[in-house]
Amino acid sequence: MNSSTLILLNAIPRDSFSAALTKNIVAMLVWLALSILNCSMVSTFRKHSFFYEDPRYIMFICMVINDGVQLTLVTALYVVSYAFSKILASACCPLIMTAVTTTRSTPLILAGMALECYISICFPLHYSHICTVTRTMWMIGVIFLLSLTPPITDLFITVAKEPPVFFHSSIFCDHSLLFQDRSIYYKNCVFDSVYFSFVFLTLLYTYCKIMLTARAASTDLVSAKKARNTVLLHGVQLLLCMLAFVVPSMQAPLIQLFPMYGLEIRYVNFLLVYIIPRFLSPMIYGFRDEKFRKYWLRCFVSKAHKLKPASQFSHKPG
């Protein structure tokens, strides 16, 4: 067991009951608010069939669902870490693998959405032939297959090197404690370097090409500017996604330097890495996209009208 593992298990003091309750209530309220937001978007998408035929909205709703699953898992793991300091490794394994898969899917979906913006602006006449629903679904399948590859190989290495009794033991549910072999760490470092380089170069290329196209006289400047800003926001999302891979490696050294603030460091990392980035997806397409915003707000208004008569009836005297 490495030093960072020992720090996580031994050096961090336990929260008081009131502090633990406050942190978990805040985490649950944020999860609930974002879940309502995400569910309303999925509901809007499902109620209007013309969204099914647009690759842009298909990829967007995929990201919303992906973020919702990830947020639910990491919030559950965070709350479970307070309720039960340790759980069975066999129970922890599917939770960690799903959380890692959804975390790795986000940047690849961002790259796909940036490419869609690039094609719509730079090749408008060929857009309907290049960006089809079938190709979009195939691309989403490839994205999730690539995202699933690292945790699957982590599991294979662990099964090969750890005794069977390990999966019947109780551990603190964390990726570094579940998959402890050093070869897994080095493998993931190489994978992440290639992975983020590809996504970064894709976003940079599409942003530059859209900017160049926007300067052409024959281009729809409004659409080009909007697409450019969207790709720029995807870049911000990518930077926030990278925190999920950079911050955990910094957490143990920070706790070692400031052991009395171990719980606060862990909580800030939880908010910074997993909560804040989840607010960007609704902002980019939910609020900025006029077409989706129109039907999304209509969905909220219709639900408000349904709740209003029930509220009036419940307050009716007699």
Automatic annotation (TrEMBL):
Pfam families: 7tm_1
GO cellular-component term (any): membrane
Annotated Gene3D superfamilies: Rhodopsin 7-helix transmembrane proteins (1.20.1070.10)
GO molecular function: G protein-coupled receptor activity; odorant binding; olfactory receptor activity
InterPro entries: GPCR1_Superfamily_Member, GPCR_Rhodpsn, GPCR_Rhodpsn_7TM
Transmembrane helix found in the keyword field: yes
Location in or out of the cell: Membrane
Chief site of localization: membrane
Annotated keywords: Membrane, Transmembrane, Transmembrane helix
Name of the protein in its database record: Odorant receptor 131-2-like
Species of origin: Carassius auratus
Lineage of producing organism: Eukaryota, Metazoa, Chordata, Craniata, Vertebrata
